[in-house]
Write a structure and sequence with these properties.
This protein has 25 helices and 28 strands. The chain is of the alpha+beta class and 834 residues long. Strands 15, 19, 23, 24, 25, 26, 27 and 28 form an eight-stranded mixed β-sheet that branches. A hairpin with a 4-residue loop joins strand 11 and strand 12. Helix 13 (371-384) runs antiparallel to helix 14 (414-421) and helix 19 packs across helix 20 (663-673). The chain starts with a helix and ends with a strand.
Length: 834
């Protein structure tokens, strides 16, 4: 061992002991999805603490000169003959008893049992040094290397900290109604058993109202099971807020729900409140599962194939290149579905996967923090087929009678999720998110990181032409804006099964009034042609300020395509707001076609003989003594928004930036800008940041400038947009695409020449880079959502590969028998080349 000892002595200065705050990557390779459980194990650099698979550790050694790596290899233990036998050597796995992660009684995230081998490996010859070998080496070597090994093994890995944050879903807040809850002296006494719903005689899932002692059934679940909503209806009729779930009362407590606070709560006076109706907590026994236990059961079933398999069929598992599953990291199915589709777009394949060697070679010293590297790593993992292998069966291997489950080893996109979600208030969490919002977030990140070279987001980018015609003067105004997703309205009044829907609603109302079980729900059938007609029909704008008549009047707005993208994304607007502004999901079936011809929706621009509206701004508001530099805003729209609880300045900006086009457009602006840091800041008008005729002195962000320039605009145009929007990138992008006509005519000094000198020589300023071609498409993928809201439920995607539809449900990848194309949320089309 003399030679190895000498090598260790020579590299001792490169071997560090992890300190608090060091990022230790000992669970996943920085450039692949290799892990300690993979063939060849994982090599952790003992200086930078980056992890590398066997195929990438030599690259890191060559690039950095680092020689000492901690090699971690884990081998899955063979299941014992009887896992529940305490004499088998390993204790049986405990079932979770608490809706929690990372604490006693919660979900055990390290459920698999492994044999672990740890040693130091010296490159380039891959010489092994075990803990026993260190005992024969000089004290200084033994102590330093042993401390480093122990420190690395005991340190929390970055991926572990991201994946498993200690979380307790049972920590409940005290209800604000508990301390002063009014209880009626109505003589009601509740027996210790034999309860029934007072409306429908249901005998399970029963809740007692703590104000009047009424016993009613709980909520109806999405599949028709559960209760009949009578406890909720009782609250809506009486306003009595707190209810306790009968059957969960024990001397230790019970489930208490606050309908007013819409959450499970604590009632510190529960013994007193129960005693009012004759219930002695100390003598009660549990007879029903608590809400926590029900949630745990649901969480344990998440990902079960039976939940979303098609028509109960046993689906054939698939594997191979492009057929790799993705692990659900806790409500990350939205990310999994979007990225599966993204890497079926050739632009993203060529940008990130075909150039992966160059990307890895150009990666910074810490590739885990590099966007391009992590996207390339994810794309390669999905397309290579290296991780598209059946997952080890958690049950005994001798059980050959079970059907194939379709689970794969798959990949866990922890580094990617952490990177794209960093700093974002929603995508950095483990909560469920909207797949459409994540798609736009990812496209925005691609835009920011593709300032030079090909930009794959151009595959989705298209221009929208908006034509507004003043009904009084018949003069028109044309504007263009960029978009990435076509939002398709759902005209519920165009359902083809209206009579069936009315009959189903009548039966539901009868069931509610009589207490009978609810009938089978009926789904509205909306023709796709009706959705397209609703998209293309003119919209009436009231209170439109016409520059031709210098007054408010009525106008019509027509929206058309100014260009057709290579790949068209269509979002079905299933999620909407009710009259009370509560989000709801439309339960609809739409006959979405496999092929699509949108040629008739191409905008034609200014019509022959058509006059354009003069480019005049609305007159400023005037007071007797002061001229206020502010536009004319529709006070009624501002007031309506304020009444909904939004800040006044945000309401004024919403009306201003939507050009007084009505409450719907202003509301859409508010919903799309609520997360802006300056959402409530005062309205800053373009051109008011500096004196007329002078150059504004405020600086603009170079990063924001580069982002807008990468989209095809000049630096002067980008600067003007940022100054007009207080240096807020998102608003600047919106502004620049809504002022294309102004930008084309703006005078830009080139190369020190005056605008007059260069007038005849210069080309018009470039617009946004968009591709264009025929408007004929074929469907190649769609993402479906199950649940009542985008913030909950589950996402899966279907992708057409070699004329076969394939369903991707996290780690499960199977041949689809009956793809539910009529129930999708996001549809992806690609251009058909003639």
């Amino acid at each position: 061992m003399a030679e190895v000892s000498d090598i260790l002595m020579s590299v001792l200065s490169t071997i560090r002991v992890p300190r608090p705050g060091d990022r230790v990557h000992k669970d996943e390779c920085a450039l692949s999805f290799s892990s300690p459980e993979s063939e060849g194990g994982l090599y952790v650099c003992m200086n930078s603490f980056l992890g590398f698979g066997s195929q990438f550790v030599d690259r890191h050694h060559t690039r950095t000169g680092q020689r000492a790596y901690l090699h971690i290899a884990r081998t899955r233990k063979v299941p014992k003959e009887d896992d529940n036998n305490s004499g088998s050597g390993d204790p049986p796995k405990k079932k979770p008893t608490r809706l929690a992660i990372g604490i006693e009684g919660g979900f055990n995230v390290e459920q698999e049992q492994y044999e672990e081998e740890v040693k130091v490996v010296l490159l380039p010859d891959r010489q092994d040094v075990t803990a026993d070998d260190l005992t024969t080496m000089p004290d200084v070597v033994r102590e330093r290397v042993s401390l480093a090994m122990a420190g690395l093994m005991s340190a929390d890995s970055v991926s572990h900290a991201l994946q498993v944050q200690q979380w307790d879903g049972e920590v409940r807040a005290e209800s604000r109604h508990a301390a002063d809850l009014k209880q009626l002296d109505n003589g009601v006494k509740i027996p210790p058993s034999g309860w029934r719903c007072e409306v429908c005689d249901l005998q399970e899932n029963l809740w007692m109202n703590l104000t009047d002692g009424g016993v009613f059934c709980g909520r109806r679940y999405f599949d028709g099971s559960g209760g009949n909503n009578h406890a909720l209806l009782h609250f809506q009729q009486t306003g009595h807020p707190l209810a306790v779930k009968l059957g969960t009362i024990t001397p230790d407590g019970a489930d208490v729900y606050s309908y007013d606070e819409d959450d499970m709560v604590l009632d510190p006076k529960l013994p007193e409140h129960l005693a009012h109706f004759g219930i002695d907590m100390m003598t009660m026994e549990k007879t029903e599962r608590t809400m926590t236990e029900l949630e745990i059961a649901v969480n344990q079933r998440v990902g079960e194939w039976e939940v979303i398999q098609e028509s109960g069929a046993t689906l054939r598992p698939l594997s191979g290149p492009g057929l790799t599953g993705m692990k659900n990291l806790g409500n990350s199915c939205y990310l999994n579905s979007v990225m599966q589709v993204i890497f079926n777009v050739p632009d993203f394949q060529s940008k990130y996967v075909s150039n992966i060697d160059k990307i890895f070679s150009d990666a910074p010293s810490d590739p885990t923090q590099d966007f391009k590297t992590q996207v390339a790593k994810l794309g390669s993992g999905l397309l290579s087929g290296e991780y598209s292998k059946p997952a080890p069966d958690p049950v005994e291997a001798t059980d050959v009678s079970s059907e194939p489950r379709g689970d794969q080893v798959g990949i866990a996109p922890r580094m990617f999720k952490a990177l794209v979600g960093r700093g974002h208030p929603e995508f950095s969490t483990n909560r469920q998110q909207d797949a459409q919002e994540f798609l736009l977030h990812f496209i925005n990140m691609v835009e920011r990181n593709c300032r030079s070279g090909p930009n794959p987001s151009e595959a989705f980018r298209f221009l929208v032409e908006e034509r507004i015609v003043c009904q009084q003067s018949q003069k028109a105004k044309y504007t263009q804006r960029v978009d990435y997703i076509l939002q398709l309205p759902v005209p519920m009044d165009q359902a083809t099964n209206t009579e069936e829907l009315h009959e189903a609603e009548r039966r539901r109302e009868e069931a509610d009034s009589s207490g009978a079980p609810p009938p089978t729900p009926v789904r509205a059938k909306i023709p796709f042609t009706a959705c397209m007609a609703a998209l293309s029909e003119p919209e009436t704008l009231t209170d439109f300020w016409s520059s031709a008549v210098q007054a408010k009047t009525t106008a019509t707005k027509t929206t058309r395509f100014a260009s057709f993208p290579d790949h068209l994304v269509i979002q079905v607007k299933k999620f909407t707001f009710g009259q009370d502004w509560v989000p709801k999901k439309l339960d609809v079936s739409i006959d979405v076609p496999d092929t699509l011809d949108l040629s008739a929706l191409r905008g034609a621009g200014q019509q022959p003989g058509e006059e354009l509206l003069p480019e005049l701004a609305p007159p400023p508001l005037m007071t007797p003594d002061v001229e206020v530099k502010a536009p004319v805003l529709d006070d009624s729209t501002v007031s309506q928004l304020c009444e909904m609880g939004f800040p006044l300045e945000a309401c004024r900006k919403a009306v201003y930036y939507t050009g007084n086009t009505g409450i719907d457009a202003a509301m859409n602006w508010v919903m799309g800008h609520m997360d802006d840091p300056d959402f409530s800041a005062p309205l800053v008008l373009p051109g008011t940041s500096s004196a007329p005729g002078t150059t504004p002195t405020e600086s603009v962000s170079e990063e924001h400038l580069a982002t807008i320039v990468s989209m095809g605009f000049s630096r002067d145009q980008a600067t003007r947009a940022l100054r007009a929007t207080s240096n807020v990138l998102e608003r600047a992008v919106d502004w620049i695409f809504s002022h294309l006509d102004d930008l084309e005519s703006m005078e830009v000094s080139e190369g020190g020449r005056s605008a007059t000198e260069s007038e005849g020589a210069r080309e018009p300023p470039p617009g946004p880079k968009v591709r264009d071609g025929p408007g004929k498409y074929e469907l190649f993928a769609f993402i479906s959502h199950m649940g009542t809201s985008t913030m909950c439920g589950h996402y899966v995607c279907h992708i057409k590969k070699d004329h076969q539809w394939v369903i991707f449900n996290d780690q499960k990848v199977c041949a689809s028998e009956k793809p539910p194309k009529d129930l999708g949320y996001l549809y992806f089309y690609r251009r058909v080349t003639e």
